[in-house]
Amino acid sequence: MQLSQFKALSFDCYGTLIDWETGISEALRPLAERSGKSPEQLIEAFGPIEHDLEEMHPGMRYSELLEKVHERLCDDLGVERDEREAARFGESVGDWPPFPDSAEALSYLKGYFRLIILSNVDRRSFAGSNRRLGVEFDFIFTAEEIGSYKPSLRNFEYLLERLGEAGIGKGDLLHVAQSLFHDHVPANRLGIASAWIDRRHDKPGSGATVLPDPLPHYDFRFTSLGELAAAHRAEQG
Question: Which domains does the chain have, with CATH numbers?
Answer without folding.
Answer: 3-19+97-235 (3.40.50.1000), 21-95 (1.10.150.750)
